[in-house]
Amino acid sequence: MKAYWKWAKQVSETKPPTNTLHCRGKSKRELDDLYTIISQRQSERKMTARCNLFICRR
After folding, report:
1. In the chain, how long is the greatest CA-to-CA distance?
2. Cα 40–chain centre separation
3. For 9-42, what is each residue's pLDDT tens digit?
4. Which of 1, 2, 4, 34 is most buried, judged by most C-beta within 10 A?
């Protein structure tokens, strides 16, 4: 119950957005960084899969 009151107080103190149509999503740079990280991990997985396939064939 204590956590609820703490949350309720925090919510009541926050100001409403001035422009309701404005999206509070991630910035373009953050999305580009995320895309880069995902691409790198995918390429690492492909390389690992190729190496494992090569090792298993020997």
Report:
1. 66
2. 15
3. 998 888 877 776 666 666 667 778 888 889 999 9
4. 34
Which strand (E) or helix (H) includes residue 2?
Answer: helix 2-13
Question: What tens digit of pLDDT does each residue of 1-11 get?
Answer: 889 999 999 98
The alpha carbon of 54 is separated from its chain's Cα centroid by a whole number of angstroms, namely 34
Q: Domain limits of the chain? A: 28-57
Nearest to 34 by CA among 25, 24, 21: 25
Which tokens belong to 9? Answer: 């107080």
Burial 25-49, CB ≥16 within 10 A → b, else e: eeeeeeeeeeeeeeeeeeeeeeeee
